[in-house]
Amino acid sequence: MNLSALVETHGYWMLALGCLVEGETVLVLAGFAAHKGLLEPAGVLAVATVMAMVGDQIYFWLGRWRGPWLLARHPSLAAKAERVHRLLDRWHAPLIIGLRFAYGLRIAGPIFIGASPLPAWRFTLYNGIGAAIWAVLVGGLGWVFGATAQALLGELQRYQMVAVGVVLGTGLLLWLWRRHRRRLR
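Above: the chain's sequence. Below: its structure in token form.
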């Protein structure tokens, strides 16, 4: 089984599992695979959006369930949680949407928010919006990477013989130059 067949067969499952946690790398690769025609672009975006949202909902409800215990057990986290709660009071929509793009807070952020008094429906709404934006941007990055790689490789293929000639010519010139220097000695 080659890599293309593996991606076509298991790509959506790998994408789903990757998007439950820090899934940027998996989503970029899925966007690249969609550009190559191995996965459907709409399928990649749908799976990424749903699974990223589900993952954050799990962490949110974990924060609802065990957040107060976690904060009581770790006072340094409690100080950070207070700051997050103050920010949530004023900027809940952009904070929830933007948290997905903050490296290292993808798991901790929803747990902190779950430990806050923010209504669950509000988190779910903005989490869904953030997940959709994230899927389009990060998956699109993989698509653009695929298009760029294809364009570069296509251009390189056109100049392949020229490149080989330049390398061989440079090698020949270096050999002649070294031979000439040896004769002078």
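The two ends are 59 Å apart (CA to CA).
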